[in-house]
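Private note to self, pasted from the team thread so I don't lose it. Backbone tokens:
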């Protein structure tokens, strides 16, 4: 029930949650759009760079939400989730992944902010010596706190926009 003691990010629709989370991530000093972000496309399926002024914070917020919902998750799985269909002209369209560089940089900034962390699987022996194998990234306690605070702040607007939402 939504009117219960604690609202989580599962209780709020993504179309209202992600912009509010992007505004909140704009206050975090570790999350800043890189210089190349003004010229970068978000995948091979796009023809032009994003036109929104805060697109970096929106993408970072969407990545954080997806890591929270599906974690532990890696960069490749996230790039496939943010991908689309490549236009092959007269040939049939084929699935294509989103930009791994955008997602990797956003994840590195989220790690620097202390909102996500790597989950170790096991050490493996390689030619270079022993290396660590990772499962993917998960949200930390601080990340859950920000997600739940934003969800609690957005809940009244969500109930107003979607009247039947309070049944769930």
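Design output:
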């Amino acid at each position: 029930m939504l009117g219960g003691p604690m609202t989580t990010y599962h209780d709020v629709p993504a179309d209202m949650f992600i912009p509010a989370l992007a505004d909140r991530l704009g206050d975090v000093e570790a999350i800043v759009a890189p210089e190349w972000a003004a010229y970068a496309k978000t995948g091979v399926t796009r023809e032009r760079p994003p036109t929104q002024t805060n697109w970096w914070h929106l993408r970072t917020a969407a990545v954080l939400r997806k890591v929270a919902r599906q974690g532990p998750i890696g960069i490749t799985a996230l790039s496939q989730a943010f991908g689309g269909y490549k236009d092959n002209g007269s040939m049939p369209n084929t699935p294509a992944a989103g930009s791994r560089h955008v997602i990797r940089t956003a994840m590195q900034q989220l790690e620097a902010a202390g909102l996500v962390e790597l989950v170790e699987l096991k050490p493996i022996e390689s030619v270079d010596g022993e290396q660590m194998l990772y499962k993917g990234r998960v949200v930390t306690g601080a990340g859950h706190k920000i997600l739940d605070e934003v969800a609690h702040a957005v809940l009244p607007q969500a109930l107003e926009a979607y009247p039947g939402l309070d049944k769930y």
